[in-house]
Specification:
This protein is mainly β. It has one helix at 137-143, and strands at residues 3-4, 11-12, 16-19, 24-27, 32-33, 43-47, 50-57, 61-69, 74-78, 91-95, 98-102, 120-124, 129-132. The two termini are 30 Å apart.
């Protein structure tokens, strides 16, 4: 989902999937719901039949969260109880009932891309609550932070 078209400030909002047998990309049409607007530098994680898209950059850093149901091909916006601050170019992974987000840039301008964070947060997918995750100093040292 998303990306850019090599022309800065032109953010894509389409989705494609890779067919491993045919060895080609094919478009994935949306059947309904409220789709996120175009972006790059976001994360996309799969849990069961849902793909979660968080944050990214679309002229400014974003903090929105969406779910795409792979079976029905419908989007829905998710509004956490307490929003996480905008983040782009972070890493994310779903683990059990949580989506964990690490690092990323909190800048709103292309010149801010070096404004990185070493923070880690976990969103409990059922309660919609973001919580900070304590992590060991070894992770920061490995990243050179």
């Amino acid at each position: 989902y998303g990306g850019d078209s090599s022309h800065y400030n032109h953010f894509l909002d389409d989705m494609h999937a890779w067919d491993c047998v045919a060895r080609r990309w094919f478009p994935v049409p949306c059947a309904g719901g409220h789709a996120p607007h175009g972006r790059l530098g976001h994360s996309a994680c799969i849990r069961g039949a849902e793909m979660f898209v968080f944050g990214g950059y679309s002229g400014e850093a974003l903090s929105d969260l969406y779910s795409f149901h792979l079976g029905t091909r419908t989007w829905r916006a998710i509004t956490p109880r307490v929003p996480l601050r905008p983040s782009s170019f972070h890493a994310a992974q779903v683990y059990g009932e949580h989506m964990v987000v690490y690092g990323g840039s909190f800048g709103n301008q292309p010149s801010d891309v070096n404004t990185y964070s070493n923070c880690m947060y976990s969103l409990h997918l059922r309660s919609g609550r973001w919580l900070p995750v304590e992590h060991c100093a070894a992770l920061d040292a490995a990243r050179g932070v």
